[in-house]
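Protocol step 6 of 9: fold each sequence in the batch and record its C-alpha cells directly after the sequence line. For illustration, a two-sequence batch is reproduced in full.

Sequence one:
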Amino acid sequence: MQNQAVPVEWVDRTAGSGYAEQMKTILSVCAATMLAGCAATPALKLHESGTRPAAAGIALGKQGPETGGEASAAILAGLATAGYAPSDAPAYLVQFSDSARAAKTGLFLPDLPAGADGDYAWLDAPAKGGKRNLRRIVISFSDMTTGRELYRLSGTERVKPDRPAGDDPLLPGMIALLKGDAATQ
C-alpha cells in the first residue's frame, strides 16, 4: 500500500479574503447568545396548597404596615378580577403579605436533620452574586365560620431594587392561577 498525498487546503487570512468577516459573524452570534441568556426574565415560583375556593365575598384580615399602599391596592384589585370582593356576608377571611429581602439572604430550616452530605435543609438557598431582591407575596383564604385555612397561594420572584412601579409579573401570575387559567399551571 502506498502512501497517498492528502491535499491540504490553506486558509487565506489575508485582507479581503473574508476570514475576518466570518470570525466577526461567529463571535457576534456567540456574544448575542450569551447576552440573551443573561437578560432572560427569571421564572416565577408559584406554589398553592389546599383547594382553590369558589369565587365569593371576602373579609380582609388586619394587614401590617408592610402591606399598605400600592401593593395592597394591586392585590385587592387582582382579587376583585378573580371574583373575590369585600362583602357584608363574607365566606372567606383573606390575609395577604408582600415582602422583599436581599437574594443573598437564604431561608434556613434548622429543625430538619442534616442530609448524608452534612448539608442542612434550605427552604430557599441564598443566591450567589447580583444585586437583586426576592419579592414574596402570600395570599391565604380561611373559612369564616371555622377559622381553618382552606387555601394558600404564594409566589416568589427576583427583582431589581430599582424596578419601575407597574412592571410586576408576579401578582398577575398569581391572580391568573387563582382564576384557574390553564396557561399558568
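Sequence two, same batch, same settings:
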Amino acid sequence: MSERQTAIPAQVISWPKLLVGVLVTTVLSLSVHVVMLQNFHVPYPDKLQRSGWPAYPDWFCITLAIIYLYNFMRERFAGISIVVRCLAVFVLISMVRETLFRAPIMDLADTVSMTIYPIVKVLPKLLLLAILACCAVASAPYSKSAWRKWTMALILSAVVFWFCKPVIDTIFGQILKSISYLDSPVSYQPPYDYHIEIPAYLTFLEPVIASFVVGILAWSQLSSRPAMRALQLTLLILLLKGPALAPITYAFYSGLDPVTSLLSVGQFSLESLALGVLTTATLTLCIRRRYPDGSGPLAADSVS
C-alpha cells in the first residue's frame, strides 16, 4: 500500500460556497415553519407538554444524538481537557436547539420587554443540556459500541428527565414566580409582521451555524458512502434540534384531529429536517479532501 493510500486526508473547505450555503439554509429552513404558520394557518402547538411521558421520547432522542455527536468529535478533542470538551459540546447542542441566544432574544422581541425574565426563563433548559453534555463526555469510554450507546442514552435520559428535570423545574419555578412582575404579556400574534420576522430570521443563524459546525467536526467519522453519510448527518441534526417524535405523541392529548395535531408540531420537525438536509447538501459541495503531500481531488468530497 502506498504512502498516499495510508495518509489521512485533511478536509479542505470552500468558504465562499459555505457562506452562501449558510444563508440559503437559514432562509429555506425557517421558511418551512413560517409558511406553514403564516400562509397555511397551521396552529401553534400551545398544549405541547414539556414533562411527563409525552415529552420523554424526544429526550431519549436528544440524549442519543449527543452521545453520537461527541463520539464523532472525540478525535478532534485529543489532548484537550475534559472541561473544555464538556463546554464545547454544551455550546454546540445549546445553539442547535436555539437555547443559548435565540430563545431569550425572541422572547424579548415578542414582548417588547427589556428585562432579565426571558434570560432566567431559559436557564433550566441550559442547565439540563449542560448535564447531558457532561454525561455524554464522561460516558464516552463506556459507550463505544452501538448497543452501549443506546443503553447509555436510555439510562442518562431517564435519570435526567425523571429526576434532574423535576428538581430544576421546581427550583426555577420558584425563582420565576418571585420575579413574575418582570414578565410581560405577548405583544404580537400570528400572522407576524416584520417586528417578529426580521429578528426570527436573523437569530435562526444560531442553529444553522451550529449545525454546520457539527457537520464539519463529525464529517470524517461518518460513513464513507455518500448516501449513508448524508442520512447520518441529517438524522443527527434532526434528533439534536427536534422535535423528532413529539408530532406523534402530541396527537394523544392535544384534543385536535390527528392531521392538525401532526402538522402543528410537525412544522418544527420539518424545519429541523430541512436544516439537516440543507446542511448536509452544502457540506457535500463544500468539503474536499487533500492529502499531506498536497494531492487530492479538486471535486467535492465523495468519500470520507
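Proceed to step 7 once all outputs are recorded. Observation for sequence two: The CA atoms of residues 284 and 301 lie 6 Å apart.
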